[in-house]
Specification:
Blueprint: E1 3-7, H1 16-31, E2 35-38, H2 44-55, E3 60-65, H3 66-69, E4 81-85, H4 88-98, E5 101-104, H5 109-123, E6 130-134, H6 141-152, E7 165-167, H7 170-179
Parallel strand pairs: 1-2, 1-5, 2-3, 3-4, 5-6, 6-7
Helix pairs in contact: 1-2, 1-7
Length: 194
């Protein structure tokens, strides 16, 4: 079974519209026959996505570092498989290894870090996997504008903007993953803008 990794918030204080979209994303992932790989959180976008996948009889794999696993009530207890790593860095590597595609759902600084790491690895041609931003309620508009400005100001090549997709809905996000075809980039040019 192929797995889709979803990065997203653990905050229990976010607006319900984000939780509903995350639940729908998890449901669609399962209904389309994919497993869900996520950061194993019980609350926020992470928990909602896992519940959506499970409610559609999907397989859910959680990955979290040991210092989080030791905190009561932090992890989603119904994971079909729970992988505990030594460090956050190992957690990110395991999320990457287990997945054939990545969805950055709304989240905070941890989600930003995960998105930027997987984007950077793709720019450096360390993987050729689909990466899509789930832009629920236009949450990611400031980040997308920042990336566009990065190119405009010549801090990155134009091709960087083709490394990820943007979806307004969970349906669009899953469709992006399913129709994604990797396009070869110019040879890595040591950061020179082209």
């Amino acid at each position: 079974m192929k797995n889709i990794c979803v990065y997203g918030a653990s905050s229990a204080s976010i607006d319900k519209v984000y939780l509903d979209a995350a639940y729908e994303l998890g449901r669609l992932i399962a209904e389309r026959g994919y497993g869900l790989v996520f950061g194993a959180g019980d609350t926020g976008v992470m928990g909602a996505c896992a519940r959506g996948a499970h409610d559609a009889q999907g397989r859910v794999i959680g990955v979290l570092p040991i210092f989080m696993a030791e905190v009561p009530d932090i992890s989603y207890q119904d994971c079909d498989e729970l992988i505990v790593t030594e460090t956050m860095r190992e957690r990110k590597r395991k999320l990457e290894e287990l997945s054939f595609a990545y969805v950055a759902a709304p989240g905070g600084i941890g989600t930003f870090e995960e998105f930027f790491e997987i984007l950077t690895l793709k720019q450096l041609q360390r993987h050729e996997k689909a990466l899509v931003v789930l832009n629920t309620q236009d949450y990611y508009r400031p980040l997308l504008t920042l990336l566009e400005n990065c190119v405009k100001q010549h801090f990155a090549a134009d091709s960087m903007l083709s490394l990820y997709g943007v979806a307004s809905t969970p349906t669009e996000a899953v469709a992006y993953v399913e129709t994604y075809q990797h396009q070869a980039l110019p040879a890595w040019n040591h950061g020179r803008s082209t």
